[in-house]
Amino acid sequence: MVRQTHGLAPRQDFISAMRRVAASVTVVTSDGPAGRAGATVSAFSSVSADPPTVLVCLAAQSRIAGVVQENGRFCVNVLPEGFADVADRFAGRHDGIVPDRFDGIEMFALRGEAPVIDGATAFQCGLQQVVRSGSHVIILGHVQHVLDGAAPPLAYREGAYHRVVPHAHAG
In the chain, pLDDT over 70 holds for what percent of residues? Predict the structure, then answer.
């Protein structure tokens, strides 16, 4: 049902509709002078191939947003199927029992770069621009290194994790 309004859509209608949009599950990581941080993020997209650019949206007041901006670099790790526990960890669901989100997670980093989660498709980025929009910041990054994990991605929709299953083509 589409509700006619003048101005902005009602907040609850927006939230309800966005829950139905499937998204790849990503973990944004950063390391540098501001320290190491990581958080699960669903708002990730390519922006341009010339130059290679991606964006992520982060809560403006979150620790990860501040760390990324101060460090000037970040990595978007697109999690593969079977990594729901890693997504939960970086979403903060285990912070009470595992204070360091990185503890026990297999990862590596090129010298001076943000951590790459082993098995993920990773986009190592230098911070290009930050745009404030409402409660969030849009972080644009020029992609400096790509690691193709080649595994099907973990997806999220309606508050649950899903597998991406291709449709068979007729004919």
Answer: 95
